[in-house]
Amino acid sequence: MGKIRNYKDLEIWQRSISLIEAIYNVTKKFPKEETYGLISQVRRAAVSIPSNIAEGFARFYNNEYKQFLFISLGSCAELSTQLIIAKRLGYLENGKADILLDEIEQISKMTMSLIKKLNSSD
Q1: Distance CA 15, CA 93 (A)
Q2: Within 5-93, where are the H helices?
Q3: Of all helices (H) and strands (E), which one includes residue 3?
C-alpha cells in the first residue's frame, strides 16, 4: 500500500465501510417492528466505526486520534453485542452472523494495532 494521505487510504476505514454495506443488507430482512429498535441501533453502531476513524484521523494530536479510535472500538463491541442479540432472536442466520462477527473482530484488532502504533510514536 502507498503512502496514507487521508483516512480513505486506511484499510481499517475501507473494511469498516464494507461492513456497513453488509449490515444494511442483513438488517433489511429484520422484522419491520424493529425499524426503530434493533435495526436503528445496529446501523448507528456500524456507521460509528468508520466515522470515528475518519474524525480521529483529522485531529492534530495523537492523543485525540486515539480517543476517537477507542470510541470506534466501543462501537465494535456494541455492534457485536447487537448482532448476537439479533442472532438469538432469530433475525440473523448463524452463518451470516459469524461472518459479520469475525469481520468486527478483525476491525477491532486492526484498531488496537493502530492505537499501539500511535502510542509508540508519542
Answers
A1: 22
A2: 11-27, 38-57, 62-88
A3: none
Q: What's the grid cell of residue 16?
A: 469498516
Task: Select from 92, 8, 112 the least CA-distant residue to 50.
Answer: 8
Which grid coordinates are listed for 92? 440473523
> What is the architecture of the domain spanning 7-120?
Up-down Bundle (1.20)
* Distant-in-sequence, close-in-space partners of 68: CB < 8 Å, separation ≥ 6: 52, 53, 55, 56, 59
What is the sign of the dihedral through the CA atoms of 7, 13, 18 and 21? negative
CA distance 104 to 77: 8
For residue 2, what pLDDT band results from cuts at 50, 70 and 90?
low
User: Taking the complete model, does pTM exceed 0.85, yes or no?
Assistant: yes
Cα separation, 7 vs 56, whole angstroms: 9
